[in-house]
């Protein structure tokens, strides 16, 4: 019985820690300064089509200028 309690306590602790990490990593995307993530050569591509960042998010050329 004590092994089950230890296991459940460990699972609960892991759940709490992971939920705290997710909560701390979640930020409002509109407040993120994207210029820190892109090299200077990529900030303005002049392309007509949308630019896709390495994380899969589509970035408009207005944000890159």
Question: What does the secondary structure layout of this molecule look like, with pairings?
Answer:
Blueprint: H1 2-25, E1 51-52, E2 58-59, H2 61-64
Antiparallel strand pairs: 1-2
Structure description:
By secondary structure, the protein is mainly α. It is 43% helix and 6% strand. It has one domain (2-26, 35-64). The protein has a two-stranded antiparallel sheet. It is rod-shaped and about 60 Å long. 0% of the residues are buried.
**Poorly predicted runs of 5 or more residues:** none
Number of helix segments? 2
| Oligomeric state of the chains present here | single chain
Shape: rod-shaped
Rg: 21 Å
Helix content: 40-55%
Q: What share of residues are in beta strands?
A: 5-15%
As for the number of domains, it is 1
Major beta sheet, strand line-up: 1-2
- Number of beta strands: 2
Distance between the termini: 63 Å
Q: What structural category arises from helix and sheet content?
A: mainly alpha
Note the main sheet: 2 strands, antiparallel
* pLDDT averaged over residues: 68
What are the salient characteristics of this protein?
single chain, 65 residues, mainly alpha, two-stranded antiparallel ribbon, 43% helix, 6% strand, rod-shaped
Brief characterization of the structure:
By secondary structure, the protein is mainly alpha-helical. Helix content is 43%, strand content 6%. Strands 1-2 form a two-stranded antiparallel ribbon.
